[in-house]
Amino acid sequence: MSYFSISNVSKSYDNQTALHPFSLELEKGEFLAIVGESGSGKSTLLRIMAGLEVQDAGEVFLDDEPILNPKQKIVSGYDEIRLIHQNFHLYPNSTVAENLSRPLLHYEREYAKNRVEDLLRLLGLRDYRDRYPYQLSGGQKQKVAIGKALSVEPEIVLLDEPFSSLDSIQTQRLVSEMKDTFREMGTTVIFVTHDLDDALRLTDNLIILQNGKLVQKGSSKELCERPKTKYVARLFSPINKLPDTKNSYIRPADLKLRTKTGLLAHVTDSRFLVHFNSLQLRLKESGLIWEVDDPQRKYEVGDRVYVSWDEVKVMNL
Ligand SMILES: Nc1ncnc2c1ncn2[C@@H]1O[C@H](COP(=O)(O)OP(=O)(O)OP(=O)(O)O)[C@@H](O)[C@H]1O
Question: Which of 89, 141, 168, 311 maximizes the CB count within 10 A of its CB?
């Protein structure tokens, strides 16, 4: 059996299925991101993994030991598996160093002291050790919250959208810093998020969850090039339906714009984006509206263009 193993775990609330039978095997030190829209069952799954939620069926094992749920264990949860979410709690009247040492009250004093020093170094918070939470930025507060969870040296860290209160630049920086910290500690990490970009900053090992079901597992390249469903395909870009087909689609970046040969269309809208212009086209014959990338910024609203593509780029979903 793998280091962390989830076997056919499922859960319903009031006869509504939140999680269909879900299985997963992770090795020690592995990083995994679970991506899914709101309500797809991500938090339910993490809470079951952490022993904080009673599942209807299935089992979770860490190092061959069963993780017991709140019905089976008096004090629910485990020091070895820490769940970190957005609504972090810091002690407002305690400094950064005191916040980090609070979970270590029952540990030997010397050990606790060294552990806090290690965490301050790992998290780049040494200059802030004597500050109070109100004197910190949102990103620094979140780092202290993550540090609190890491103080007891968990084997597994479950991140439940912990960065959603931060802006995207803070999130990018924090995710890459945390990645180094987790690597240095050898921690196994599962990160759930609705944002594929955030997920990819941590790892390329992805699971896509939709309506409580695992729809696809793989690297970003595999999921982008061979998505199994429209939902997976749309995580990477909009998709355009080919005329006169039932389920064939093409991505805006895979379309070529020409002044001759192809499907005739008119440019109805153009947006200037960082790396290309995003055009909206109306196809003459079918009337379909398509999105097309124009990396050369060549076309303008009202232009006539011809669109073509490579058959290998067509996705049948
Ligand atoms: N305690 C509960 N009682 C009843 N229904 C619940 C409960 N917790 C979750 N659900 C339902 O289960 C489904 C999955 O919820 P869950 O919170 O796991 O999804 P999620 O992917 O984490 O969503 P979000 O990203 O919005 O947090 C949702 O339909 C939700 O309404």
Answer: 141
Question: How much is the pTM?
Answer: 0.88
pLDDT tens digits for 112-158? 999 999 899 888 899 999 999 999 988 888 889 888 988 888 999 99
Rounded Cα distance between 69 and 74, Å, is: 9
Query: Partners of 267 in the beta sheet?
Result: 281
The CATH class that applies to domain 238-316 reads mainly beta
Decide: 18 in ligand 1 pocket, CB within 6 A: yes
Nearest to 149 by CA among 108, 103, 183, 107: 103
Mean of the per-residue pLDDT values of the chain: 93
Q: Give the amino acid at 115.
A: R
Q: How far is the CA of 241 from the centre of ligand 1 (A)?
A: 32
Residue 103 is given by DSSP the state: G
User: Is 47 a pocket residue for ligand 1 (Cβ < 6 Å)?
Assistant: no
Tokens of 278: 């995003």
* Same-fold call for 4-225 versus 238-316: no
Q: For residue 293, what are the CA distances in angstroms to 28, 237, 271, 278, 308?
A: 41, 11, 10, 5, 12
193-230 pLDDT tens trace: 999 998 999 999 999 999 999 999 999 999 999 999 99
Q: How many helices (H) and strands (E) does the chain have?
A: 8, 18
The CATH architecture to which 4-225 belongs is 3-Layer(aba) Sandwich (3.40)
By most ligand atoms within 8 Å of CB, the mutation choice from 42, 190, 192 for ligand 1 is 42
